[in-house]
Amino acid sequence: MKFIDECRVQVIAGDGGNGAVAFRRERFVPRGGPSGGDGGRGGDVVFIGDPGMSTLYDLAHQHTLRGERGEHGMGKDCYGRGGEDRIVRVPVGTQVFDAASGALLFDITEPERPQIAARGGRGGRGNMHFATPYDRAPRRADPGELGETKDLRLELKVLADVGILGFPNVGKSTFIRSVSRATPKVADYPFTTLIPHLGVVAVPGDEAGARKSFVVADIPGLIPGASEGAGLGVRFLKHLERTRVFLHLISLDPGEGRDPMSDYAALRQELSRFDAELATRPEVVVLSKADLPEVREAYPALKAKFKKKKIDLLLISAPTHEGVDQVVFALWREIEKARQGR
User: Fold this and answer.
1) Measured distance CA(277)–CA(263) in Å, rounded
2) Interval 264-322: pLDDT, tens
3) What domains appear along the chain, each with residue ranges and CATH number?
4) Helix or strand or coil: residue 98?
5) How far is 284 from 95, CA to CA, in rounded Å?
6) DSSP states along 37-70
7) Global pTM value
């Protein structure tokens, strides 16, 4: 299914039903009095977070979402049936904005928790509510209220504990495949990953057999100028806003004339330009592709350079699983600190 993380929709809640003007017409009951019932309430348009969804693709082609209209009131004191709510299921992590003002209306961060996007109109009162000692046969009833109409902009931002950073082709997809059941595409050319992938990583338990886990997001590769729209640009930088910890992967790439230190500095700069707060979040820095002899040879010198910046550079090979558990434990420690607000 195609990945879509932004779309616009119009939501129209159901109108309330009209109140009825009616009178009792029964044999042997002259001047029976008013018996018009109330109209039913219009249905709301309700958004619910669905943990099984990962794209706004379904909504991108539904330009209008309507709640059901309430039934009109009827005679014999019968009330109209209320309109059914329109339930709209969206991925967890979806933000809903007013398209005109840009104001954030609500943020869907929990699954199965309903959020009302547009409220249905109230049903009108029937004429039985207007009877008085001076007017025992009122011919008046209220019309139903109109339901709310709103133009909305939906924006999906991935929810994850860990966001994987790195230039294209440094091994992000290979890493997430090795630690979870996520299956992003892996190939030896840049921009293999064109959409964010989520995976659940199980942390090895302690002696008591406790099971711990966290969610990791494979963010498409960034390049210098991403904060200004270069490459895949801000379209995917925004998905880092909800992550607690960054896993920054670097590797040797002599064919591109780059070095790991400059790659690390370049992406840190892009984070700062996009959002200064992102650059303050905890990170684990890892040199990938340890199965390559040239990477293993360069590791001691690189580790010393990063140590001068007070960064402990780890080494992994995702295909052989070398060092992967050490990285998982390091990420889990940072996640626990972030969750406790340290």
Assistant:
1) 20
2) 888 888 788 877 888 888 899 999 888 888 888 889 999 999 898 888 999 988 888 88
3) 6-156 (2.70.210.12), 162-339 (3.40.50.300)
4) strand
5) 28
6) PPPPPPPPEEEEEETT----HHHHT--EEEPPPP
7) 0.68
